[in-house]
Amino acid sequence: MYKYEDENLSFDERAMDLASHMTLEEKVYQTIHGAPAIERLGVKSYNYWSEALHGVARAGVATVFPQAIGLAATFDEDFIEEVADCISTEGRGKFAAQQKYNDTDIYKGLTFWSPNVNIFRDPRWGRGHETFGEDPYLTTRLGVRFINGIQGHDKKYLKAAACAKHFAVHSGPEDERHSFNAIASKKDMRETYLPAFKACVKDADVEIVMGAYNRTNGEPCCGSKTLLKDILRDEWGFKGHVTSDCWAIKDFHEYHMVTSGPEESAALAMNNGCDLNCGNINGNLIKANKDGLISEDTITKSVARLMRTRMKLGLFDDQSKVPYSKIGFDVVDCDEHKELNLKASRKCITLLKNEDNILPLNINDYKTIGIVGPNADNRRSLVGNYEGTASEYVTVLEGIRELAGDKVRIRYSEGCHICRDRISGLSGPNDRIAEARAVAESSDIVIACFGLDPSLEGEEGDQGNEFASGDKPDLNLPGIQLDVLKALYESGKPVVLVLLSGSALAVSWADENIPAIIQGWYPGAQGGRAVAEVLFGKTNPEGKLPVTFYRTTEELPDFRDYSMENRTYRYMKNEALYPFGYGLSYSDYQISDVVASADEVSLDNDITITANITNKGDIDGAETVQVYVKALMEDAPNYQLKALKKVALKAGETKEVKLTLNADSFGLYNDEGVKILNKCGYEVYVGTSQPDKRSIELTGKSPVCIKMECKLDNVVVPE
């Protein structure tokens, strides 16, 4: 019996012992994502590359939840953990079946390369819909709770291994990511780009961290001493393993030009703490070791970290003692999970405009409903990227048709292609406009379904990217969508706009002319049902914007500029079209009796904010209490979200909410990246939106303001 087989020893001891029995060649090939079996040691083949961004992905049928940006719009961290727990349950169920039939292929493991906690700093970035939005605090809370749900709460074993990616300072441009150098100041690094990763490590004990393709301040992220050694391991105490993004290490010599060839690249990555190579370049470590570029001891340590993860998943132990091994295939795509998915779709939908309370619609008021637009019957616009395969997809057209039943005639036109000027290749431009006008003319009301889909925003290299790199060239509705929307408006019939997209769109014309606008995100496989329920009042919308909707593309800074100046709600100077944190409801919620436990900020004492929230409406719903902090000093950021709580309320019900602020909530980073508690006044706002002028104008409500101050003389906040 080898020492590593003794289940009474620690995983660290067992993993190091197992690695010590491997030859150099065996060790090297264990550091590639498709790790081969070592039969003499009882090591099965294992592929580390699995995806679970919003459901188990790329591995057959699974529950397909709303895309991550849609989940972020719930502003509900408890619910995010519930969703992630469901995802890892299905992951375990599928893994059990795959192991039974000896399927160890790619996407068939328990190391899930999610969540993506990069900051969605620019709305043009194609991969932004994989994130939890533009705010470090919201991203931090949702990222931590997602990891909790994926990894479980067993004291010994992981349910699955989560991965915080892409470390760090990564958000486009996609077509330059293999060679791009993201330059960020120490202040922006600490204030914006690193907080979510830090929390994933220190608060959630995430098992895996993935490096980014780009360089950050000159160092390739997957081989960065600053990021991987100095910050991740030495400062934050990360104990898990680091993986490269896929084929990122070969970028070191092919595009970043920081090494002379594959041996140097593989050695640079592992010497600085990148343990796993997604790709195949780590085979060069054998020659790199021979040439003195890397020691065998360093390789052994990386292998031990990888074996430790597999041991924490219970893959080397008596399965009767691993609690999660009892999860069977029957949980996959079960009715309970389908219902949770529909709940997620309902919770993410965000109501942006509702002039004269045109919504919710009464189905009995209409004999004919027109449904027009390229996203009305588009399955791709339900799911986003990194998706699984659902057993059922319900588009908006299908959802409305299902809800209306035989009571109402449904008329439908695709209206236009999602981004081109015609649908049929041999036709002239705008080849469905006559049909769209006819549908509008013959309908009592028109539901216009426009926006984006993953063919227009996504990852560089994805098949089918209409915009080549996956980034958006601008924030406008693509192609001739706006022309068709204007034609529907000209019919004189009431028009409700449903936007399906993974990012912000500049829909100023619609805001001025269309009476009701719903942002549906990529709402998941059940999304069409949820949209129909919101339209016709079966569900009360509760989503909030995790990103700013800007008025124009022109007001954005240069896409390649990673300075946070004039970016996101925290630093922007112009007025938003729809602000971060904004979202309407069919109910009227009121905040009252706001009390703070103290009015002086200190290092040691937390401040408890107590408030009552009341549903003044006549239907049940849920609302997010949001707390923003503003330092009253020159060059300080705008109001910043520092606490939130989703509250479900029946009609007429009042609940008390308690939220906590601490020194970290008030501290600001200086130019050296040190968090300082400044001697100044502070404003703390408690409400259901930001305290900015535009949010107040849109909601008709002003958050309650509490004045506070700090008398300490610019002291450092311990981190």
How does this structure look, described?
It is built from 22 helices and 24 strands. The chain is an alpha/beta fold and 719 residues long. It folds into 3 domains: 176 residues, TIM Barrel (Alpha-Beta Barrel); 235 residues, Rossmann fold; 128 residues, Immunoglobulins (Immunoglobulin-like, Sandwich), CATH 2.60.40. Helix 1 crosses helix 12, helix 5 runs parallel beside helix 7 and helix 15 crosses helix 19. It starts with 10 loop residues before the first helix and ends with a strand. The model has no long low-confidence stretch (mean pLDDT 97).
Query: What would you report as the Rg, rounded to the nearest angstrom?
Result: 26 Å
Annotated CATH topology of the largest domain: Rossmann fold
For the biggest β-sheet, the strand order reads 9-14-13-12-10-11
Average the pLDDT over all residues and give the rounded result.
97
Ends apart, CA distance between termini: 44 Å
The oligomerization state is: single chain
Tell me the number of helical segments per DSSP (H or I, 4 or more residues long). Answer: 22
CATH class of the largest domain: Alpha Beta
Strands, total number: 24
Structural class computed from helices and strand pairing = alpha/beta
CATH superfamily of the largest domain: Glycoside hydrolase family 3 C-terminal domain
Number of domains: 3
Coarse morphology: globular
